[in-house]
## 1
Amino acid sequence: MQFIDTMNFIASSFDGLFSKEVFIALAAAYIGARATSKATIRAHELATQKSKNDEREVTCNTLRLIRAELVAAWDIYMFEYGRGLLLVSEDAPYIMTLPIGDNPFPIYDSAPPCLANVDPAISAKIVRIYMRTKGLITMIKLNNADCQVVYNAGRYATQSLVNKAISDGVVIDEEGARKLNEYHTFYVEQEAKQLGMGGTANGMKLMTGELGELLSEIKKEIDKLTSNAE
């Protein structure tokens, strides 16, 4: 039975209440409204799903950027500073400076809203590694400041010897210059010990070891999470 025939049949049953034309118009309006409602619901579902997909993609991309930021920072740190630090004997000062900018982690600093969408166990590790890294940076800056103090002290002490030699009419030959360099190095090391730079170096080494292990874990977990989302 065709749709219009069905409507006519139903309408004839209500002939005493209203005309067939009115009934068919009401039925058509109802069917149209129902179809529109289903289309609206479906459109809303699709929009919601797209929003979730977009949010998941932004989160995964942010995690990839965080991974890249951490790896790049770690590689630079180890190449320019960390490897030498780990070679220093226990309690020995590390008389070496590492320039650090005011905002070394721009990606992480803008990422926390996205971390709310990540598994709490992973986001906790990411927050921890950045907190520990910023703690290490504070120690490096402290060590940098102490290095400047001992370098200045060494230069002052060496220059004092040079000035005395000049006033005494002593000519500083190649051997004398070598001895002055040795004196400068010795003086700087002694000043570093007096400032307690050995304790700072010990702390930086411990933190470097912890960060290396934590970074290895985070890299694996981010790789797994982002690869599953593809």
## 2
Amino acid sequence: MDALLHGLVALLRWLVLGLIQGLLEWLFLQLCYALGWLALRLLTLGRHPRQPLHQADPDAPRNVWIIALGFICLAGLVAGLIIRNG
């Protein structure tokens, strides 16, 4: 009985952590995509990406570069805040 209870708790923990990880990954991708979209829009003076932010699909293969640019911007913002606030 004790082993069954430990197994159920482990399964529940695995499911909850998987859901949390999936949610955080989705949120992180959305944030990086939005930052990359904005940065690319500013750098190209509004020419690229052509789709509006709310209509774009961050999961599309061509959008990996936008997500990477957003990650670089996010890392730069965090590094700047750390350096500024010591």
## 3
Amino acid sequence: MTLAIAAATPQFTGKITVTQHAIDEAVKDFRVPRQTAEEWIRSNLRKARFITNTISEEGKPSRLFGYQRIAFVLAPEENIVITVYPANPKAFLREKVNALVTRELRKIERHERVLERKIALTKAELEIEKAQLQLRLLRARSAATKLACQARINAINEYFTQLDADLLAVKHEKRAVAKTVVAYL
């Protein structure tokens, strides 16, 4: 529920103050040069999304923002960056997400195999029809029959192109899903 709310919330806006502790953490955890650390934090925070209101280990309230596996902890009322740290998911949650994206990859692979088989069968059947049309074209004396045969042959060739495009689209989708799986390993 919180993730759905975070995705719908607009990105961070407003004037940003950065604490020395946040700068030190950016230098230590993200290897950002100290001279540019404050601006790096501001720049990434502007792209970040609000996640939730939290409390620190000491019980102090704060706001949590996130962007590209960077967590930003801000003061509850002011736009003061208290700290930044790499967002490493808990093992049980990472395993659930990994299982989910892996399941999606298997699903798209199954869809790809089914589509490849269906296309191969369709093409084989149409190749037979195309060969019969070519034979009929060679035997035909009438110009109308020749035009009709050639038109159907052209239609079959266009359909082959469309089938190949459909399969290529599924392969591109599979590649996109596979890249997402890598992000969660």
